Amino acid sequence: MRIVFIGDIVGAVGRKALKESLPKLKKLYPNAIYIANGENAAAGRGITAALAKEFYDQGVHGLTMGNHTWDNKDIFEWIDDEPRIVRPANFPQGNPGKGHMVVKAHGQELAVINLQGRTFLPAIDDPFRKVDDILEQLKNKYKFIMVDFHAEATSEKIAMGWHLDGRVSFVVGTHTHVQTNDDRILPNGTAYLTDVGMTGPRDGVLGMERAGVLQKFKTQLPVRFVVDEGKYHFHAVTVELDAQTGKAKSIAKIRYIEDEFVME
Ligand SMILES: [Fe+2]
Ligand SMILES: [Fe+2]
To answer: Which of 20, 28, 214, 248 is 20 to 30 A off residue 240, Cα-Cα?
Structure first.
């Protein structure tokens, strides 16, 4: 059992990065389950039905989201009817959509849980208690469970890794858009990476045009950030899971830089 998880797809450049990188990955890992974070797909803010369909058609089996979930109002039209997308499970009760799903591909089932941190982000429900509740529901039903923890603080993400070690197969962080170098398998068999990094423009600031971001830092005046253009970098991570135990056997970061070099 193999999972490939692709970091936050940012705008048109991110979508181009996915289109060019996915076929390479599919050649390397034809039987993997592919999950991607889509919270920034529509010009950096949210996702539309058309973009979600584009990703599914290209071979992404499931999508996770984050703090930008509701930025594009299009999503309210279809999220309740789409089984292949999750938004953070600890959003307030009554929010549309769902926080966990089961992705089926290649005759295998992967439970996917999306959570959002509360450090330097809105004060939503407790992600630690929420994931305990969900795991109680999933207990003994699914061997392969992964968590996308969409959070800002490395400490909160590392804490979540320890909280879930031995209880899920894989914990990956999203949201900071910068890939961390701490991929490892925790002592009880959970593959862990603090942040997978993003799939989008490489010469801006986290996917946004750098002039606006610089202006904001220098003047503290209101600036509307726009998604950057230009060349991309693509960030993902792959984990291999033991078919019998569901525990992680290996984890490897993936980074493709447009027109430069390929590192695996
Ligand atoms: Fe993001
Ligand atoms: Fe985010």
So the answer is: 20
CA distances from 220 to 132, 152, 217, 223, 238 (A): 40, 21, 6, 8, 39
Ligand closest to CA 208: 1
The answer to whether the beta carbons of residues 247 and 240 sit under 8 Å apart is no
Q: Torsion angle, CA of 196/199/203/206, rounded to 10 degrees?
A: -60
Query: Cα(85) to centroid of ligand 1, in Å?
Result: 15
Cα dihedral value 75, 99, 1, 163, nearest 10: 140
- Give me the number of domains the chain comprises: 1
- Ligand 1 center to 243 CA (angstroms): 31
Nearest to 176 by CA among 162, 155, 194: 194
Give the residue ranges of the chain where pLDDT is below 70: 261-264
Residue 106 among the catalytic residues: no
Q: How does pLDDT run across 191-209, given as a tens digit for each residue?
A: 999 999 999 999 999 999 9
Q: Which ligand has its closest atom nearest to the C-alpha of 150? A: 2
Q: Evaluate whether 185 touches 191 at the Cβ level (below 8 Å).
A: yes
| pTM, rounded to two decimals | 0.97
Distance (Å) from CA 30 to ligand 1 centroid: 26
Select which of 68, 177, 233, 235 is catalytic: 68
Which ligand is nearest to the Cα of residue 149, counting in written order?
2
Alpha carbon distance 141, 241 (integer Å):
17
CA 141 to centroid of ligand 1, rounded, Å: 31
Here the CATH number for the domain that contains residue 61 is 3.60.21.10
Nearest 5°: the CA angle 250, 253, 254 is 130
Main-chain phi, psi angles of 183, to 5 degrees: -60, 130
The Å distance, Cα 245 to ligand 2 centre, comes to: 32
